[in-house]
Amino acid sequence: MDGVPAGVPRVPEQRRPGSSPESPGPGESAGRSGAAVSASLRFSVLGPVRAWRGAEPITTGSPQQRALLAALLLREGRTATAAELIDALWGEEPPSQALAAVRTYASRLRKVLDPGVLVSESGGYAVRDLPDGALDLAVAQDLATEAEKARTTGDLCHARDVLRRALALWDGETLAGVPGPYAEAQRVRLEEWRLQLLESRLDMDLEQGCHAEAVSELTALTAAHPLRERLRELLMLALYRSGRQAEALAVYADTRRLLADELGVDPRPGLSELQQRILQADPGLAEPSSPAPEPASAPVRPAQLPATVPDFTGRSAFVRELGGLLASAEGRVMAVSALAGIGGVGKTTLAVHVAHQARAAFPDGQLYVDLQGAGARAAEPETVLGSFLRALGTADTAIPDSLEERAALYRSVLAGRRVLVLLDNARDAAQVRPLLPGTDGCAALVTSRVRMVDLAGAHLVDLDVMSPDEALALFTKIVGEERVASEREAALDVVAACGFLPLAIRIAASRLAARRTWTVSVLAAKLADERRRLDELQAGDLAVKATFELGYGQLEPAQARAFRLLGLADGPDISLAAAAAVLDLPAEETEDLLESLVDTSLLESAAPGRYRFHDLVRLYARACAERDEQPPGERTAAVSRLLDFYLASAAGVYAIERPGDRLVDHLAVTAYPGLRFGNRHAAQDWLYAEAICLLACVRQCAGNPGTLPRAIDLLWAAHDLSESGANAREYEATAEALLDAARLHGLARAEARALTTLVNVHHVGGRFERADQEAERAILLAQEADDLLPVCWARNARGIIALYQNRHEDGEEHLSRAIEHFRALGDRPGEAAALCNLSRIHLATGRTASAVALAQEGIDIYDGMGNSLRGANARYALGLALTQSGELGDAAGRLQEALEVFRDSRQRLWEGMSLFRLAEVDLAARRPAQAAASAEMALTVLRGIGGEWRRGNVLTVLGRALSGIGQTGRAQVCWQEAAVIYEELGSPEAAEVRALLTPVRAA
Fold first, then answer.
1. With contact defined as beta carbons under 8 Å apart, do 654 and 683 qualify?
2. Looking at the predicted structure, is the pLDDT value of residue 290 above 70?
3. pLDDT at position 772, please?
4. d(C-alpha 808, C-alpha 842), whole Å
5. Whose CA is closest to 967, among 229, 247, 230, 274?
């Protein structure tokens, strides 16, 4: 920020212990023995004055005795005379026996401290020979110095980390409980230094793009220090960069009014200038001032390029052309090269090779993504941008939701950096445009099967097959010079039969290299059959198919079966365990087969334990399965086993997370087993890691009436993917597809269960009207099918939706019937869930005591079954009831317990809602600053999940909290936004918020 020193502030007049001329020198005997003896002593002044010997606390005596110790520690080895100490402890009115008291305090301290630490000298006292790290204040100063050096060198990540460690040394008020004028002066001095350090750290937070996270902390700090303009300035900038311009300007208006009322002055020039820049939408404010946002752990320089092949051959003209273009990127707006060609022609290999050679020209990193443009589900630009932003060090909470906002932030993050972006396998120019850096010094390499003539400013490169010499050189590098030299003509026949296509040559050569008994002539003879290749390259997939046929024909029977069946699985890749299910083989045997396919280049190793097909190879593998797999029913059986594996594994995850929940007992029976998990975290990790592949399998099974019911059950068991915010869009789209399929096939029971999953999706998304309609339909269908569990779930959902819509009588009826149904099934956790929701109905209708009792009953059920996740939901309900009953301390305790479980379980929706409810508790307890901080955190966590109605609720509470700390301008902005949300939804809360706005307008 302009006008603010960039360095890290230093504490005034602080020197290291022993630096005084009066201290014994390092060569003196007293210094050596004293340091050795006192090596285990530690002291703190950044909080209560305390002392330890090792881990054992030392009694420091009365407040006046602690004041004496503090005065000596803060003099850092210098001698304090008796008169100075008397003045420090009592000021201008010391007691008559002050000198005797000082001597008594010193004597008592000398007895509890190590010999030689507290010394008498020249009628005074000093603390000497403390080792490094013995005094927390000295440690803080050292860390501040280290942070200053790191910031000077541009290492903001390290500087932030070090400042966090320094600030963590404070344990409450400095010199807490220590009397005397000296202690009071030091408290003021050290508190000012702490605030300066905090401002410096927050400034660096903003430089690194952590705007959303900073808003919550700055809101609380400005409430605690309302006249501190630097904090207000940082808050304005954080809000502006978070897309909250109106609130940023409101902060300035609040500050100006406060300064005028309290001090009769105007804001300082820096604050006024920032206001003008915000009004003018100054582009410089939208970008972090540091060269690159980095995460808290280490400076980020992404190096995502795949490994280049060691036997790269030929393409020298293209290498020079593209290398020269990339080398000239500095000083140009942007260098973009788009490589086009048929599948297998070597676009990716060439691009990766050129990118590796150009790395030195892009010292700030290289980004890579496979855009899957040839597949049925090409990568979405907003998803790719999210991945790129995280790779560049942007926190998840700072990544906006929309494509336009992500693209803008991406360009801002890259501003001033030199980064190479490799966009592989693009579908079209529309997919690529948002991913281009758009800044000088950066460059993009794009590969695609189509020529991107509509990509403005791009340097287009059409990549054809290899020349005969290049093709032969590649074949020779893989097979070996000795084998090719004696059969050069046969080798030329081989590469010609491969159509000089690099991928085809690599596959053929790899097969020959793996079979030492074959000659090149044998391979050439096998390729001579024209039925196995095309005379000319008419279409990319046909050309590649002829080459794949060669590799496939040389597979052993077990390898060929694995190749065919694995190609049937949708999803970008497949885990070893899932592949074993497809093949119906043990994991060890499956791994051997998959690795052998990797050796033939028909399969890729995506990561340890994960495999993937090139998209064209997958299509060919499926064609082979349709043609060769016998009996034909084995194809369906393979996909069915994969579905069983995912369903059984997801059910295992659900059972671990929700002990005693009867859902797992009502899922379809699986013939193939799933994974077993050692603990809840391992289960969660599996679910989120497999989310994309799991949902792809569900979609794939939607078209088969035989697998559709199990697919729906899998989606039901994996509903955490919706509630956590992870893959929420994919989950919803999959649920809609399954509902359509169930209706198409006339499967009422399956339709009811699909509707049940969608009810949860719409509930989480805040679309309550649609959720209620789907739930009503689910109940009717499930009752017709005599399937009671969806009835229970849908009744429970309708009850809580009725609460949201102020239909309390309807809600109580639905929940009471849900409780009856759950009890009929013996589903205790389900019963507890409905009890907790019924608690909220009682709360809304003024029956507070029964609300508390119902929520507690739910907790007792969950705790008795060891169900911590669902127990957190019950504690959430109890926290609401206790808030309304005025038991605010207990309410905060229950909500905090729930928050910790939700956070640990990756339940973003409920984590955000718990923060929101904690803000309500803080408001009721008249802690508006703390309420504002909690509400800000809730807004951050709930971004992209929970729906607009919940966002309106949080904004309303945030406005109340801001009003309570005097930030009425920001409060008004929050209420205005909430009012717009409610009015668009037709929610009755709109009138309440408009009433809040009325006195503000009148004022």
1. no
2. no
3. 94
4. 9
5. 247
**Over the stretch 301-355, which tens digit does the pLDDT of each residue have?**
888 888 877 778 788 788 888 887 777 766 555 567 787 765 677 888 888 888 8
Find the length of the chain: 1003
pLDDT at 212 over 90: no
SS3 462: strand
Q: Is 436 helix (H, G, I), strand (E, B) or coil?
A: coil
Distance CA 146, CA 148 (A): 5
| Phi-psi label, residue 58: left if phi above 0, alpha if psi -120 to 50, beta otherwise | beta
Burial class (CB in 10 A: 0-12, 13-18, 19+), 709: buried
In the predicted structure, residue 961 carries a pLDDT above the cut 90 = yes
Helix (H) or strand (E) holding 950: helix 947-964
Q: Are 548 and 498 in contact (CB under 8 A)?
A: no
- Measured between alpha carbons, how far is residue 734 from residues 291, 702, 791 in Å? 41, 9, 22
**Distance (Å, whole) CA 795 – CA 776:** 8
DSSP letters for 831-890: HHHHHHHHHHHHHHTT-HHHHHHHHHHHHHHHHHTT-HHHHHHHHHHHHHHHHHTT-HHH
- Residue 132 CB coordination number (10 Å): 13
Closest C-alpha to 374, from 402, 344, 395:
344
Beta strands 80-81 and 56-58 are unpaired
Per-residue model confidence as pLDDT tens digits over 567-603 = 999 988 999 999 999 999 999 999 999 988 887 767 8
939/409 Cα distance (integer angstroms): 19
Q: What is the end-to-end Cα distance of the chain in Å, rounded?
A: 33
User: Edge-to-edge, what's the strand order for the sheet holding 80-81?
Assistant: 80-81, 124-127, 118-121
Element holding 120 (H helix, E strand) = strand 118-121
Report d(CA 532, CA 21) in Å as an integer: 92
Say how far apart CA 800 and CA 811 lie, in whole Å: 6
Cα–Cα distance for residue pair 305/812, rounded to 1 Å: 58
Q: Which two tokens stand for residue 614?
A: 């090139």
Axis-axis angle for helices 136-152, 156-167 (nearest 10): 170
Q: Six-digit token pair at 378?
A: 């090409």
Cα–Cα distance between 627 and 619 in angstroms, integer?
12
pLDDT for 15 beyond 80 = no
Residue predicted with more confidence, 905 or 24: 905
Q: Distance of CA 61 to CAs 47, 112, 126, 399, 556, Å?
A: 16, 10, 18, 52, 84
Q: What is the pLDDT of residue 774?
A: 94
Residue 565 — very low, low, confident or very high, per pLDDT cuts 50/70/90? very high
User: CA of 587: how far to CAs of 605, 646, 674, in Å?
Assistant: 16, 16, 12
Cis peptide before 586 (omega within 30 of 0): no
Rounded CA-CA distance 773/798 in Å is: 9
Say if CB 441 and CB 418 are below 8 A apart. Answer: yes
Name the burial class of residue 538, with classes exposed (0-12), middle (13-18) and buried (19+) by CB atoms within 10 angstroms of its CB: exposed
Amino acid at 421: V
Dist CA 16 CA 137 (whole Å): 9
What's the mean pLDDT in 693-711? 94
DSSP state of 113: S
491 pLDDT above the threshold of 60:
yes
Average pLDDT over residues 671-678: 93
**What does the block give as tokens for 852?**
């508390």
At 72, list the tokens.
Answer: 């000596």
Residue 338 DSSP SS3: strand
DSSP lists the bridge partners of residue 422 as: 368, 445
Say yes or no to pLDDT of 286 above 80.
Answer: no
The backbone torsions φ and ψ at residue 125, rounded to the nearest 5 degrees and listed phi first, read -140, 160
DSSP conformational letter for 434: G
CA-closest candidate to residue 197, choices 131, 146, 232 = 146
* pLDDT per position as a tens digit, 429-460: 888 888 988 777 888 889 886 677 778 778 88
